[in-house]
Amino acid sequence: MTIAVTAATGQLGTLVVDALLERTSPDQVVAIVRDAAKAEPLAAKGVAVRVASYDDPTALKDALAGVDQVLLISGNEFGQRAVQHRNVIDAAIANNVSRLVYTSAPKAETSTLPVTPEHLATEQYLATAGIDHVLLRNNWYHENYGQTLDTARQTGSVLASAGEGLVASAARADYAEAAAVVLTTDGPVKPVHELAGDVAWTQDELAAALTEVLGTPITVSQVTAEQQTAILVEAGLDEGTAGFVAGIDAATAKGDLALTNGDLRALLGRPTTPLVETLRALA
């Protein structure tokens, strides 16, 4: 069984390939990449490297030739992702790929996260595309708080407008391993996995973890979304990015990242990685 991983040189894709190599032989893994030079470490492991961008339907069709399964890792070009994802899905269908696995967003049908609309559009396209598919709705990554750690180190504070909203984040490697488990499971698998960490934490608990890691007291500065946006703009972010950050906190306050259901733990066969462990590695 040949398994293709798109965006295979990205932060998640690299980890997925490594997890696959623990479960299958290199000649069964295909790395779809935009830059062959960046993929040299993968090629050195015996993985087949094929070059195709999400914007090139012809190259994608060629790259997925002879593939049994494909992991479509969602792109990062906001505003273009729905079309790009459709290009990959269409190429998979053209090659009679038996199953497509897609990394989506948590609670995609109802979430107000700014990243969700393109994920939902992709899910809706898959629902009508006529290809067997599995949705991996990944909750937030611990690694998303690397910048928060750096800012806390400098200011002694976490700026937030999330209130008491919970975040059930997990390590990127946890999600990568789960994807590899799904891709290497023989027979039927659940069509939708809501994946999240074992523990849902508040901003105060994030500050406590940062305090432990940095060895200095870190507090939380809770502000309104408008105040948060203004503070971030004053600190140098453009208004779009600042609004995006505030939008994530608004969705967090509504509970869009709070789900903990044990699904990720079940796929891994072990507890998910604690937040403090990833923060310590980032520090």
Automatic annotation (TrEMBL):
Pfam families from the UniProt entry: NAD_binding_10
Sequence ranges assigned to domain NAD(P)-binding in this UniProt record: 8-184
Name the record gives this protein: SDR family oxidoreductase
Species whose genome carries this gene: Aeromicrobium ginsengisoli
